[in-house]
Design a protein that fits this description.
Helices cover 23% and strands 32% of the residues. With 398 residues, it is of the alpha/beta class. The strands form four sheets. Strands 5-6-7-3-8-9 form a six-stranded mixed β-sheet, with helices on both faces. The two termini are 52 Å apart.
């Protein structure tokens, strides 16, 4: 393995949950091995290969297993099953004050953390000036860390972690307590480490930071790995899930052959709706194919409409129809197919749903309408923001 490499195979971490403290004792001493606990999988069957120099953002809701994964990587906790292999020095900011002795001064804790990473006192002496300068907490560097504010903790912890030349740097929400100037300082230093080949694992609820900093992202949900890929795409998918929840698509897919219905009130019915794919990038070609049956031999003014909505249906994105576009569609008795094509999809990241309808009388009479009969997502590498991409240019004044 190269220094900075992380390999995770079939990794699971199980905790036993008890209704009351006495149940733990009863289970321990039960002659019949009776269980008084429930198993909770903090992580379940995780497989990952992280190469040297990658910057990995980890997203997921609170309790999803992100911090558990980081603790396993650092060796703070051990796996229930599976293996995890790392190579090289690991510097981790998991929790504020973790690894610090509250009775020691800032200086003493710098040496303590260096020793824990395998550095000698002489090696740490060379690094102490840079650490003190970066932390920038003034005379508090000589005071017990129990007197520090959360911001001071973050400054000192980060300063130690990034100035000991780690092969793997782990940052878990540590930047959220710092002020803006400190966050800029930290990100700039992390970019230096990134360019020097340090592997970085980065957890933050500020997901735009992952888009802009990380090369790759993973999404953990209920202890399971849901997505692993290009950072911006994974973040878009996660963000869509947080906004809208699971997709609720009611597909229309009638494979029966054409036949006249017994109920003569039906003049036309949508039989099938399909989309060329469900995951797009901006500017790609999108096609919605609509199959419909016409039962009346004297149908006139038939029109087909396709509409896009945001997944929560709060935003009506676009809804053309063949009547407005002055397109004639087949309206004789029988089965027909119409394809709606968007040559260049100008939507940005998001989840969208598709409605399809057939009408006549200038769109006044609804013959059949299908809500949420298809859905699609748009996710890109990070190149712009918003809901739509608009062609634009910049002019820079002298």
């Amino acid at each position: 393995m190269d220094k900075g490499t992380i390999e995770v195979r079939d990794l699971s971490k199980v905790y036993h949950l008890y209704n009351k403290p006495s149940d733990r004792i009863r289970e321990t001493f039960s002659i019949r091995k009776k269980k008084y606990s429930k198993e909770h999988y903090a992580l379940k069957n995780i497989n990952l290969k992280i190469n040297k120099g990658e910057s990995i953002g980890i997203v997921g809701t609170n309790g999803s297993g992100k911090s558990t994964l980081l603790k396993l990587v650092t060796g703070v906790v051990t796996p229930t099953t599976g293996t995890i292999k790392t190579d090289g020095k690991i510097a981790a900011l998991l929790e504020l004050g973790a690894g610090f002795n509250p009775e020691y001064t800032g200086i003493e804790n710098i040496y303590l953390n260096g020793t824990m990473m395998g550095y000698t006192e002489e090696e740490m002496k060379k690094r102490v000036p840079d650490i003190i300068e970066f932390a920038d907490i003034g005379e508090f560097i000589n005071q017990p860390v129990k007197s520090y504010s959360s911001g001071m903790f973050a400054r000192l912890a980060f300063a130690v972690s990034i100035n000991v030349e780690p092969d793997i740097l782990i940052v878990d929400e540590a930047l959220s307590v710092g002020d803006t100037r400190f966050q800029v300082k930290c990100i700039d230093k992390m970019r230096e480490l990134q360019e020097s080949g340090t592997t970085i694992l980065f957890v933050t609820h500020a997901i735009e930071q992952i888009k802009r900093f990380c090369t790759r992202a993973i999404w953990i949900k209920n202890g399971e790995l849901i997505e692993d890929g290009e950072a911006s795409q994974v973040v878009d998918l996660y963000d869509n899930f947080m906004k809208y929840g699971e997709k609720k698509i009611e597909k229309v897919n009638n494979e029966d052959e054409f036949r006249l219905p017994e109920n003569s009130d039906y003049l036309a019915v949508i039989q099938k709706v399909s989309i060329n794919k469900n995951m797009f990038k901006t500017f790609e070609k999108l096609e919605v194919e609509v199959t419909y049956d016409v039962y009346d031999n004297h149908m006139e003014d038939l029109q087909v409409g396709v509409a896009f909505y945001s997944l929560d249906r709060k935003i009506y994105v676009f809804g053309p129809n063949t009547n407005l576009d002055k397109i004639s569609v087949p309206q004789k008795q029988g089965r027909h197919v119409v394809k709606y094509i968007v040559p260049e999809l100008m939507l940005m990241g998001g989840d969208y749903t598709v409605d399809v309808g057939i009408f006549n009388s200038g769109g006044i009479v609804n013959l059949d309408y299908k809500n949420n009969c298809e859905g699609f997502s748009v996710a890109n590498e990070y190149f712009s923001e918003g809901m739509f991409y608009l062609k634009h240019e910049w002019q820079i004044g002298e």
